[in-house]
Amino acid sequence: MVKTVRVQVPPSASNLIEAAKEASKKAYAPYSNNKVGASVLTENNKIYTGSNIENASYSLTICAERTAIFNAVLDGQRKIDILVVYDEKTIYPCGACLQVLSEFSDNPLIILADKKGVVFYRLKDLLPKPFTHFSKT
To answer: What CATH architecture is 13-126?
Structure first.
């Protein structure tokens, strides 16, 4: 069962939510009309954004969360502390996005924001058993 986690909201949360909201305006979503924006805060206090980019072949669509994460990684960032997802209606990150997030974080704060408000989770609440690096022995 997924539970909502009460956490101290970092001062940068409002900036992150606004950045995700702005990113949602850039989404390319002609098939679902569901414009999602995301932002991530790295350990160096840098903010990166992304939006969903759809394709007629749905399997080629990329989520806003992965776009933001990949933008951070492309800039050399390897540690994500916070992920924010914004949509006008409540939306949760998919399993693929959560797995990618786990590659670049330990147990980051996940903030889901919509017109109604904000909900906080930790990655381990939404993805309790991610795939991990396998040691070669």
So the answer is: 3-Layer(aba) Sandwich (3.40)
Decide if pLDDT at 10 tops 90: no
What are the domain boundaries of the chain? 13-126
CA distances from 85 to 10, 49, 114, 132 (A): 16, 10, 8, 24
- Contacts made by residues 40-45, CB under 8 angstroms, sequence distance 24+: 40/68, 40/69, 40/72, 40/80, 40/82, 40/83, 40/84, 41/10, 41/12, 41/16, 41/80, 41/81, 41/82, 42/72, 42/77, 42/79, 42/80, 42/81, 43/77, 43/79, 43/80, 43/81, 44/77, 45/12
What pTM, to 2 d.p., does this model score?
0.89
Express each pLDDT in 40-77 by its tens digit. 999 999 999 999 999 999 999 999 999 999 999 999 99
Positions annotated as catalytic residues are: 65
